[in-house]
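tool_call predict_complex ligand=magnesium ion
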Amino acid sequence: MALTLSKALRDEQQTVAFGAALADAVKQLDLANLVVFLHGDLGAGKTTLTRGFVQGMGHKGNVKSPTYTLVEPYELPPWHIYHFDLYRLADPEELEYMGIRDYFLQKSCCFVEWSEKGTGLLPTEDLIIDLVYNGHQRNVELRANSESGERIIQALM
Ligand code: ADP
Ligand code: MG
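tool_result ok
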């Protein structure tokens, strides 16, 4: 059975802190080529969690939602971090035009919102993060889909 972890996130700060804890795990394990799919309804906190991750990896500035650009890169040596939001992807072929494969070849951490829009063109994910409304709060559920994913969940437990 796949390794899972779930946790209540009471407010935005806790969602950001969870993303930062994920960054600590990735740094500690010195992982590269990590692919994370973020699932959850609009407003569930996918971008908020990613902001915590990207800032936890050392980014000092803003983290804006790549809703219109599809991808936002962050160069944080030795990591290449890519934050995708495929919500507005009309045709998966757009991903071919933007050279989607190259993003996953290098040492990179790719966080993908609305990965279901890119089915068939994205690599297999290491980790699935599900954000679920719980009244005004949220629950986060992680599911490992590779050894790297399992190591991250173990580091978070
Ligand atoms: P998504 O990318 O999933 O569409 P966003 O991260 O853009 O969602 O927006 C999430 C919204 O919910 C933000 O307004 C944020 O302040 C709020 N939020 C994030 N985490 C929590 C939480 N744990 N509890 C309550 N509100 C949250
Ligand atoms: Mg978003």
